[in-house]
Here is the input.
Amino acid sequence: MNPNATPTPLSTTSIDAQLRRAVCWYEDPALARKCVPVGPDVLTSIDVMGRSNDRRLIAPLVDMLNVDVGWNGAVEPALERLTSDHVESADRARAWREWLTAHAPMPTPPGYAEWKARLLALTSSVSTQPPYTQLLTDRLGAALPLLHWTQTQPNASRPLSTPRAVAGRAATWLDPNEVVYGVAIGGEARAYPQRIVAWHGAVNDVVGGQPVLLSYCLPCGGAAAFDRRTSSVTLEFGTSGLALQSRSLLLDRQTPRLWDALTGAAIGEPRAALASVPMFTTTWADWFARHPETTVLDVTTGVIRDYAPGAANRDVLDAPGPLYPVTPVDARLEPKTMVLGVSAGGQQRAYPVADVTAKRIIQERIGTQDVVIVCEGDGKAIGAYEATGSTFVRIIDSGVDLVLADSDGNRWAMRESALINERSRKTLPALDTRETYWFAWASAYPGTSIYGKP
Here is the structure.
């Protein structure tokens, strides 16, 4: 091929042929692994794509860079020709993914979803259930080019289903100050130690008779709880091995679809979202004091892991920024600032946890909703509630339950699901919240405001 020749745009048929040849597209995806080690036909296809002047091929080439089976030395020059750009980074695959997200939305060729599924099949030595060909479809829309493979297979983290729980008083292995995620439903309380759920990503459980998903987004640094029921089925969740803007994606075993572990939304289907379940991020000592009859996810899960505190998220804690590629991070806060994200009044607002801990009570308006943010103390539970009709003035130390006093002299007990007026039993419902890194909240909700900032 003459390197000085004028690029010739490829026809749709030619694009399809080059992409198929690049991943040895056979009807049996297992045969695609014959591409490894990479042969001359594959390298020729990469070169043709790089010289095509067709920007629809940028996303596929970035995907190939993420799945290095010996072709990256050819893929990088192809990307440089197509984009007339050059990235400088020790991690070129990450840098090109960040370039792609910064230039989104990016056009993609016909059949791109199935092609990307075939590409990821190259990484698997065994059949994965459900296969990528079921998860990656055109319904993912603009999110599809941004999906980043995290170098792990679906369900490799061994998500838990109906795991064993033990009485809190028997959990002598738990340190009083370690982080747990607490859920209380229908008179039943359960704690999920961070040291366990951080390894597994998803826990399918039943609390108080309600099917619950406790999701842990490792790169986000936080957890969330959801109702696993939809209008037609109770879902069981696993891990996909994919990330979107450095937020972990889960899969369900029934449909199957991809779900955002932080927001509970189905990717590419904005109207499909899991209902949130109120959850406290707090210490084991605080949760056990609140709920002496609580049960705890047992450390004997049937899976061999190093369940020492901090072992599962060590790489995340050590990383100076997001673990996986993201768009340029909103610079109003440092990327890994821990925030309480609140959805209320049709809007989202981020509260730096350090600010909430220092003030303990913050009352203001988000969109159309009066809200109050309450913190039990340093490292302990933070709750956010509707505040319609009440003005809260101080916290009363009252044994186990945190109690708020309003300007009319009423006392309100802080619970997971609501503030409860001790005299009238009136309730102010809990709001939808997440404790997570700032970059994760900002990428999920680009229009979010920040407490204390214009």
Observations:
- Residues 160-318 form a domain with the Rieske Iron-sulfur Protein fold (CATH 2.102.10.10).
- The chain has three domains: 12-147, 160-318, 338-450.
- The CA atoms of residues 142 and 355 lie 36 Å apart.
- The longest helix spans residues 72-83.
